[in-house]
């Protein structure tokens, strides 16, 4: 049975070594610099944080990776795709504003930020994978144009997937708007008629003539709609909404299939920081108190083993008093399932193993 190496260091420091220096030592020991970065485009996939949420990773961590890659003559950029939901990261202009507001700019990170799926989330590459649920993944084009993919993940809880780890960062995070539609929804978008102003922007952007305007209100013919999500990005008042009706287990498996589309056939490496483990995603405009103490930093070439190692480490931690998890019944012997009982994070892991993305079994190497 295959076993992957996962490297780990805690968050303790000394007068001789701070956390950023520890991170550099970790990724070097884990083998990141064995990748040939010279004159290659490297995408560092990261979540810039929804403004108002303070649990996202500080940009200082990304600069460690950027400096190492640039020292190897690599051409590196930080990237994410636009969101499906209404917020500060729905289009590239607002998304860049949010990233800069949270400290992600060339002066603090040493490289540029590129929103991978373009201005309105429609700049995508179609990647055939022939999965159980996804036949053709829709990935932000700039990510697919890269030669190398590095994930830098804030490991935390998630209300739909149990936790947000490397696979969630890669699969959901790299999906274009249409890709996120495919993962989150079994159905099609709809128009919130009270909000709709009948401007026709959605209709102009629909390539399938699925939208009509009557009495200054838009409506979508679900028989013609293909679920591309362009109308969501086009609406100036956020009146076009998604059902969000996909079952959590299927959502998790679609994320695994999208991760495969992102990673296959090119070098990749993965880093997860298990700090400020909030119960909900960093897409929230707020962050609740952490559910467990800070654990440490993990790195591996195997995103599946990395996620399992991080989950195991969290589950060994005591629950913090006063947290969201402390208010829940502890009946599952799993902090993530106890936090969100309607989720099962292992469905994503099991499906990723089936797809050949990595292994559940790992050697934890402490440095």
Automatic annotation (TrEMBL):
UniProt KW keywords? 4Fe-4S, Iron, Iron-sulfur, Metal-binding
**Cross-referenced PANTHER family:** 4FE-4S FERREDOXIN-TYPE DOMAIN-CONTAINING PROTEIN, PHOTOSYSTEM I IRON-SULFUR CENTER-RELATED
Outline the extent of the 4Fe-4S ferredoxin-type domain. 187-215, 216-246
Keyword check for DNA-binding: no
Q: Does the keyword 4Fe-4S apply?
A: yes
Q: Which organism is it from?
A: [Clostridium] citroniae WAL-19142
Main function: Ferredoxins are iron-sulfur proteins that transfer electrons in a wide variety of metabolic reactions.
Q: Fetch the InterPro entries from UniProt.
A: 4Fe4S_Fe-S-bd, 4Fe4S_Fe_S_CS, DUF362, PSI_iron-sulfur_center
SUPFAM superfamilies tied to this protein: 4Fe-4S ferredoxins
Question: Pfam families attached here?
Answer: DUF362, Fer4_7
Query: Lineage in the entry?
Result: Bacteria, Bacillati, Bacillota, Clostridia, Lachnospirales
Give this protein's Gene Ontology molecular function annotations.
Answer: 4 iron, 4 sulfur cluster binding; metal ion binding
Which Gene3D superfamilies would you find in this protein's record?
A: 3.30.70.20
Name of the molecule in the record: Ferredoxin
């Amino acid at each position: 049975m295959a076993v992957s190496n996962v490297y780990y260091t805690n968050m303790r420091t000394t007068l001789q070594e701070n956390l950023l220096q520890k991170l550099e030592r970790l990724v070097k020991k884990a083998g990141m610099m064995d990748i040939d970065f010279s004159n290659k485009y490297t995408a560092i996939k990261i979540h810039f944080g929804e403004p108002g949420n303070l649990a996202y990773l500080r940009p200082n961590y990304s600069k460690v990776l950027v400096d190492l890659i640039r020292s190897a003559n690599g051409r590196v950029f930080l990237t994410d795709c636009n969101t499906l939901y209404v917020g500060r990261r729905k289009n590239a202009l607002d998304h860049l504003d949010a990233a800069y507001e949270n400290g992600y700019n060339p002066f603090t990170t040493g490289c540029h930020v590129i929103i991978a799926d373009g201005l309105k989330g429609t700049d995508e590459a179609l990647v055939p994978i022939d999965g159980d649920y996804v036949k053709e993944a829709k990935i932000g084009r700039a990510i697919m144009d890269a030669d190398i993919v590095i994930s830098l993940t804030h490991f935390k809880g998630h209300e739909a997937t149990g936790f947000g780890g490397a696979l969630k960062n890669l699969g959901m995070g790299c999906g274009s708007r249409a890709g996120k539609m495919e993962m989150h929804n079994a159905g099609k978008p709809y128009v919130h008629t009270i909000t709709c102003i009948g401007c026709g922007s959605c209709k102009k952007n629909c390539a399938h003539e699925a939208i009509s305007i009557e009495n200054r209100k838009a409506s979508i013919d679900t028989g013609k709609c293909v679920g591309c999500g362009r109308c969501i990005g086009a609406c100036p008042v956020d009146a076009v909404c998604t059902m969000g009706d996909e079952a959590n287990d299927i959502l998790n498996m679609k994320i695994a299939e999208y991760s495969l589309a992102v990673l296959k056939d090119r070098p990749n490496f993965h880093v997860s920081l298990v700090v400020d483990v909030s119960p909900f995603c960093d897409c929230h405009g707020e962050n609740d108190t952490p559910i467990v103490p800070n654990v440490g930093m993990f790195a591996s070439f195997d995103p599946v083993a990395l996620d399992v190692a991080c989950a195991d480490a969290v589950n060994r931690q005591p629950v913090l008093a006063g947290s969201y998890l402390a208010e829940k019944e502890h009946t599952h012997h799993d902090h993530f399932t106890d936090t969100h009982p309607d989720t099962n994070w292992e469905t994503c892991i099991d499906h990723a193993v089936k797809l050949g993305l990595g292994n559940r079994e790992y050697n934890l190497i402490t440095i």
